[in-house]
Amino acid sequence: MNGEALVWHIMFSVLAWTVLASIVLIIYAFVLRRFDWMARPLRMALVRRGEDLLTYGDLDAKQSAFVEWCLDHAFNPWIMVLSSVLGVVSGFRLILVGTHGKPPFTETDDLKTISLLFWVSAFAANPFFGFVVGLEFLLFGSILFLKGGVPLVVRLAVEATNIKVPHYHHKTRHA
What we know:
Elements: H1 3-56, H2 61-73, H3 78-96, H4 109-125, H5 127-160, H6 170-173
Helix pairs in contact: 1-2, 1-4, 2-4, 3-5, 4-5
C-alpha cells in the first residue's frame, strides 16, 4: 500500500469510527431519556415517601441519614459506576470470607421501599452501568449458588435482612 492509499485508509477509518461512535451516543441518549421518562413516577414516589419518613417517621439518626442520602443521590449517574466497582470487591469478599457483623441499622419495610426506589432511580440515571451491576449480581449469585447451594444463598440473604439464623453443621442437623 502506497503512502496516499494509507492516508485515505486512515482517514476513512477515523471517519467510520466517528460516525459509529456518534450513532452509539445518540442511541444511548435516547435510551437514557426513555429510562428517565419511565422512572419519573417512581422517583416522585421516592421523594414523597422519603419526605414523609423524614417528617413523620420514627427514624433514628442513622436511618434518617440513609433516607437523606438516598434522596440527595437518586439522580446521580456516578452511583452505578461506583456500585459496579464496589460490587466486584464486595462479591469477592462475600465469596471468600462470607458475611460478618451486623448491618448499621435495622431496615423497616419503609426503608426497604426507599432502597428499591433509590436503586431504580440510580439505574435510570446510568443504565449502562446499571446493567453491569445487574450482571455482577447474576455472576456472584451464581457462584454463591454453586459454592453452597440454596442453603448458602438463603442464609446470606436472610443475614443481609438482619434476621438471626443458626449456623447448623451437617452433623448437628441430623443428631
